[in-house]
Every structure is written in structure tokens, then in C-alpha cells.
Design brief:
3-stranded antiparallel β-sheet, 14 strands, alpha/beta, 494 residues
Length: 494
């Protein structure tokens, strides 16, 4: 309901206010959204046909729920979005620790206050944004943190005996009465702490120490968990899983387009960068393909997952790499290049968990391999697949390029100016013609990017060689590159 100018219990009764549970609030407001076509889960992409219908069914059923999925699958964001389905304002008894409904007081304090002041009992209002409580489950969480405990300092200050319930200090759960309460990473809670949630989930009440309390709490519980946690760090004990009424499985985006949409929505690109740096869609798609390749890589721990945060951080690094070059070279506007993909390596190495083989190869090697696999996947979608000409022994459209690299090397400096970059690419015979043959007419900056993409694609198909250093990428003859790499390894060993 809207926040009226009501400050007393008597005025609230006269206004026609009636109590309803938080689950009823969520249900009624969701029904209104479904009828009107409104979307309370703004910013949640890729779940319209899968996860969100399951959540809506759980809300309509009045269920507590567990969102089960790998890292970076928007579990916490979904939980936070549920506040959009709460009433904007609700009345509470002023001074109540537990957000008590004036028509349904549950503590001795509130009952005595209403008995004493009756119609003059003061009323306050809380906004739906204040009705969300979130707790990260960690091994050091105690029953006192969640449920409550006796507070000896309160007993001493108020000169109360330990038999008086006013000495109780309520934990997070009771203080979340009439709220959405979220526990993230539920398996990290110790089993004995999980046991403390049994009563509140099944009967809706709590017990603290020796007090025979029956607080009829009204809470919408939402839990999140990672399947990896069931085996690596802990588990959700079976009786607790049995009490959580709906378990909803989340997933990664099912298409590159959806993944790109999430990245564009979440990437922190400021206005200055937007004005200064342009990013061709092929680079955006390659970043998404890198994450897709990581989710299938033999070097990456698939139980841990590959978060959507990888592509978000990678895109931000890509833009910043082009911006840094523009600042140093004094250029007002720049386009991101294929070489800028090397700048996303820190975003990859920090976001993937490697299996033993990956650790042996090293994080940087795995990152470069994922970038290469993404290029290899994308290349034949635009240009002729070099493998076709190897098998059928047909004349290759890439022959002029291959022949040129038989006698020449090309060093692409990371900090090359736009002019130097263009001169280097145009120096290779046949490269511009390949782009014109397979691509639609495009601006010069985009054409240069596609020319560079051809070089990387041919290198990934082992048609030409590629050597990567900290500040440059050198393309050359395949055999020469192999021998030079062997020489470098021998020098390092010496």
C-alpha cells in the first residue's frame, strides 16, 4: 500500500488496513505483473523461458527456494530483484526490533505497548527497499548470529533476570521478519548451523536458549548454492534440502547473442571511453567465444564454472587497452584491434580454475590457447576455411599471403599508431583483396581490423606462423616460426 499519513494504531484501523503475509504480497504483486506484462526482474537476461518461470511458480506456490548454479549466473541479482514484488510501504509498530505488524504483534514488548497505549500506539512505515536482508554463509557463522542469544550486557543495564525474555538479543533471521532473507553459498554453513534453520522453515518459529518462545515469523527465504560446494567445501544436509520447497537450476547464457547482451549491460565503460574507443562486433563476439571455449576446455575445471564476469572484465580491459594507446599516441579516436585481445589475459587468468594439466601448462598459456580457439572457431564463419584447400589440394585464395610470408616477417607493435598499423597491413599483397572478397563494404578502420583478423585466423590454422611477445605479435613463415621458437626455448634453458 502507499505510505499514508498514519502515525497511530487507531488511524491505521480506520484506514481499512488488513494484514497479509510477505508470501501473499509477493504472490498478489506477481499476479498483477503477469496480467499487465510488467517485468519485475529487470536486467536478468537469458532466463525468460527457463529460470524465471520456475521462480514465478515458486512465488505463486508460496515456496522458499534455493537457486542452484555455478558462479556468475545472476543468482543474487534474482534474489534482490524480488523486492520489486513487495508492497511499496508497510506499517510496523514503532520501536519494534522485528518489524512487527500492528495487527499481529509477536513479541512481549509490542503486545504490552499496544495494551498500554491502545489506539495511541505509534506506527512507523518501512519501504520495500529496507525489507531485503542478505547473509553470506561462512564457516564462522554461529546460531547466535542467525537466531539470537541471551545478552548479559542488556540484562545488566536493564537490571533484568535471565528469565526475562527482554534479555534476548535477536539474530538476523528474526530481525528479518516480514522481509526477504537470503543466505548466499548455503553449503558453507556448518551442518549444526543448518539444523537451526529447520524450525523456522517448517513451522515458522524459533527457539533461543532455554526460552519457550514461539515467534510466528513471516519470512520469504531464498538460498543460493554452487553445485561445486556439495563436494568441495560442504553440503546442504538432507533434512534442510527437504524443507526448502523449490530448488531452481540456473545456467549460463545459451547463445553468444545473449552473452553479448549481458556483457554490454554490465560492462563499466564510462562516457569518455565511449566517445574515444570504438569496438567492432567481431571483437565483442570473440570475447564471448573465449568464455564459451573455456566452458569446454580440458584445462579448465568445469565443476567450478566460468563466470559471466570473465567476459565483462575482458571487454573492459579491451576498451582500456585501446584507450591507453590513444592517450600515449595522442590520438583522439581509436578502434580496438585484434592485438588488444592480449590485454584481456588478466581477466581470463583470474576467472578460471585450472585442472592439473592446466596448472602444468600455466595460466597464460591456457589464456592464449582459449583466445586462439575462439579465433579458430570464428574464422571459417566469415572467410574460407584453410583446411578445405589443404585436403582438396585446390588453389588457395590465401596463396599470395602465404608466399609473401615465406620470405618476410611482419611485426605488429601493440603501441603502433593508426598510420603505422595501416601501413603494416597494406604491405601484405592479397590481404586487402581477401577482405573485399568475403566481407561487405565497410569503413577503413573496420577493414583494417578484418585484415588483421585474417592473419590471426591463418596462424590458428597453421598456415602462417605467429610469435607473441609482451609488446608485439610477429607473423611469418610457419617453419621459420617453429625453429625460432625452439631456439628461444634452448636459450632460456641455457
Amino acid at each position: 500500500m502507499n505510505k499514508p499519513e498514519i502515525q497511530t494504531f487507531e488511524a491505521l484501523i480506520k484506514s481499512g488496513y488488513s494484514s497479509k503475509s510477505i508470501k501473499t504480497e509477493l504472490r498478489e504483486n506477481l499476479i498483477q505483473c503477469l496480467e499487465s506484462g510488467a517485468n519485475p526482474f529487470q536486467g536478468i537476461i537469458g532466463y525468460d523461458e527457463t529460470v524465471l518461470p520456475d521462480i514465478q511458480r515458486a512465488i505463486l506456490s508460496g515456496h522458499s527456494m534455493n537457486l542452484l548454479g555455478l558462479r556468475g549466473q545472476a543468482k543474487t541479482r534474482i534474489a534482490r530483484s524480488m523486492t520489486n514484488l513487495l508492497d511499496e510501504w508497510i506499517p510496523v509498530i514503532a520501536g519494534s526490533e522485528l518489524n512487527e505488524d500492528p495487527l499481529n504483534p509477536i513479541t512481549g514488548f509490542s503486545k504490552e505497548l499496544i495494551l498500554e497505549k491502545q489506539g495511541a500506539t505509534p506506527i512507523s512505515w518501512i519501504h520495500r527497499s529496507e525489507r531485503y536482508v542478505e547473509k553470506l554463509a561462512t564457516p564462522d557463522v554461529t546460531v547466535a548470529d542467525l537466531i539470537g542469544d541471551v545478552d548479559p550486557i542488556k540484562a545488566a543495564n536493564l537490571k533484568l533476570s535471565y528469565s526475562d525474555e527482554r534479555v534476548i538479543h535477536f539474530g538476523l533471521v528474526p530481525r528479518s521478519n516480514r522481509c526477504i532473507f537470503v543466505i548466499n553459498e548455503l553449503p558453507d554453513l556448518q551442518p549444526r548451523i543448518q539444523v537451526a534453520l529447520f524450525n523456522i522453515l517448517q513451522e515458522g518459529d524459533i527457539q533461543i536458549r532455554g526460552f519457550q518462545l514461539r515467534l510466528d515469523l513471516d519470512i520469504q527465504f531464498v538460498f543460493t548454492a554452487n553445485p561445486e560446494d556439495y563436494t568441495n567445501r560442504g553440503s546442504i544436509i538432507t533434512p534442510l534440502k527437504d524443507r526448502i520447497q523449490s530448488q531452481i537450476l540456473t545456467h549460463y547464457p545459451k547463445s553468444i547473442e545473449l552473452s553479448r547482451e549481458i556483457t554490454q549491460q554490465e560492462a563499466n565503460i564510462n562516457a569518455d571511453q565511449l566517445k574515444r574507443v570504438s569496438v567492432h562486433e567481431i571483437l565483442s563476439e570473440l570475447i564471448e567465444l573465449i568464455a564459451s571455449e573455456a566452458r569446454q576446455s580440458e584445462f579448465v575445471d568445469q565443476k567450478s564454472g566460468v563466470s559471466a564476469r570473465l567476459t565483462i572484465s575482458a571487454f573492459e580491459n579491451l576498451v582500456s587497452s585501446a584507450e591507453r594507446r590513444a592517450i600515449i599516441q595522442g590520438e583522439k579516436n581509436v578502434s580496438a584491434r585484434m592485438g588488444d585481445l592480449l590485454s584481456i589475459i588478466p581477466a581470463i587468468t583470474g576467472k578460471v580454475e585450472l585442472v592439473y594439466e592446466g596448472e602444468q601448462e600455466g595460466p597464460k598459456f591456457v589464456a592464449l590457447r582459449l583466445i586462439g580457439q575462439a579465433i579458430r572457431t570464428k574464422f571459417p564463419q566469415i572467410f574460407a576455411n584453410p583446411e578445405t584447400f589443404k585436403r582438396k589440394k585446390q588453389a588457395s585464395p590465401y596463396q599470395p599471403i602465404i608466399e609473401w610470408f615465406g620470405a618476410n616477417d611482419l611485426e605488429m607493435l601493440a603501441m603502433a599508431t593508426d598510420k603505422e598499423y595501416a601501413l603494416a597491413l597494406h604491405s601484405i599483397p592479397g590481404l586487402d583483396q581477401i577482405v573485399k572478397k568475403y566481407c561487405q563494404p565497410m569503413p577503413e578502420n573496420d577493414r583494417l581490423l578484418m585484415m588483421e583478423f585474417v592473419l590471426h585466423g591463418l596462424a590458428e590454422y597453421s598456415v602462417i606462423g605467429k610469435s607473441i611477445l609482451d609488446s608485439s605479435i610477429t607473423f611469418g613463415d610457419m617453419m621459420n616460426q617453429i625453429f625460432s621458437s625452439d631456439d628461444e626455448e634452448e636459450e632460456e634453458q641455457d
